[in-house]
């Protein structure tokens, strides 16, 4: 077991006894954004546009942080008088990618609406 990066052996050396290198992975869920209740049709259309904009930003953020197995689905169908436009994006991210500034970027790109689990 290696506890310090300086102890890490050179993996390109064929005489090295390193068979594989693994890093911690996080199964992440990002929910973007939650709309308001009792909306007009124009407001619903605007919210759906916002949802697609936020969803694209969240996908871009995940890909920039080496996400794999990216998937999304819409959570609430709602009806014309009462809706909550939300989508959940799931992916696998390396722990090292979310430790630094991932959460700050998530909140910034979603105007504070997205949540991360």
Q: Strands of the largest sheet, in order across it?
A: 2-3-1-4
**Multimerization state:** single chain
Q: Judging by the overall fold, what is the CATH architecture?
A: 2-Layer Sandwich
* Cα-to-Cα separation, first versus last residue: 29 Å
Please state the average pLDDT score.
77
Query: How would you spell out the order of helices and strands?
Result: EHEEHHE
Cα Rg: 20 Å
Overall body shape: elongated
Number of strands: 4
Summarize the structure.
This protein is of the alpha+beta class. It has helices at 41-64, 95-99, 102-109; strands at residues 25-32, 68-74, 87-94, 115-116.
Structure, explained:
32% of the residues lie in helices and 21% in strands. With 117 residues, the protein is an alpha+beta fold. The chain has a single domain, classed as Alpha-Beta Plaits (2-Layer Sandwich), CATH 3.30.70.240. Strands 2-3-1-4 form a four-stranded antiparallel β-sheet. It is elongated, with a radius of gyration of 20 Å. Residues 35-39 have low confidence and may be disordered.
